Fold these 2 entries.
Entry 1:
Amino acid sequence: MYIISETLSSEDPRVHPEIVKIGDYWHFTISYIPPNKGIFIDWMPHEKLSEDVAYSYPLTNAYKGVVSLTKPYTTKKDIVTASGDVEWKKHIYKLNAKDNEDVVALIKSAMRLYAKAHIISQKTLKKLIKEINNANTMEKCDLVFYNYFNISNATTHGLERQPDFEVKWPWDK
């Protein structure tokens, strides 16, 4: 089983040593939970992911459907995104419809987990979860991040925030 959960310390004694870390996205870790090992994760807020969604984490930084890779790949497990280092030979990869679907599912899982962990008002949480669930493209996910989580990126650069409702985070004054 694949899951996404809030990133925990590598020394957290609750984390079973046979949980396999797949990758990271934002404040979250994508992991594989091997079957029949007696690994309990009920204590940990998480969402289950398909294998394809779990391995799509390197594609989350795509802009306009394109991501730079260090080399061509044949399976998602082999993806290595290119850094800003100009010495690397970069390969351009255009996300296909399935890639976009998987990346959107991963981003939405992270947003839902973050909102559930930090928003106190159940009324606001319900509205925000609805906004998250209705985002069906990477661009719409970017707008939800921008309008409600106050996180900007290349898609939203220079845009004015236009939330339909106010989200009060616990750290807001």
Note: The mean pLDDT is 92.
Entry 2:
Amino acid sequence: MDTQTILIIIALLLLVCYMNQETNRKIDIENNKYIKRLITNGKPVIEGNDNKKSTDKKSTDKKSNDNKKSNDKESKNINFRKEIENTHKRCPHTGMKSKIIACIQYPPLNTGFLVSLCCPRCLSEIQSDFARPQQDHNYKITKKGEYYYFHGKDKKGGQIAPKCTLENTKIVREITKNELSTPS
């Protein structure tokens, strides 16, 4: 092989390496976008936080309003987290320490809600109760303000019951350190 052929081969290899790195970079960007959409269900993680500099008053006012909305959202998020921390310590069925997180289906609202329970038996009893006619339910879910609450047999207090979503499941699991219930 002569020197010119070797240089051509080296140049081709460098070109292939560059193209591979560029392709991998684009794939990585798309993967990150996909994961972010999956985790946040398509919603921005923090709304109203654009990093563009603005010189006109309208844009500044809009940013101020966006920041207020963001602060309100963060405040609601803090309240939501505190409510989970306070109400998910005990199983609403037995009063024992909660150990699992379960998504219960509530037919009257045709929606699934997350609750923390002590055992799969409680989950089974609650779900069986919801399979009966609504007037015969020993358990119920009510809306108070912007949150839903699950009420056990005594109907006192209640456990905040976020809707079953990937994001809410991650939040409840992070706060309670409970395991996810597995279907039996």
Note: Residues 44-56 have pLDDT under 50 and may be disordered.
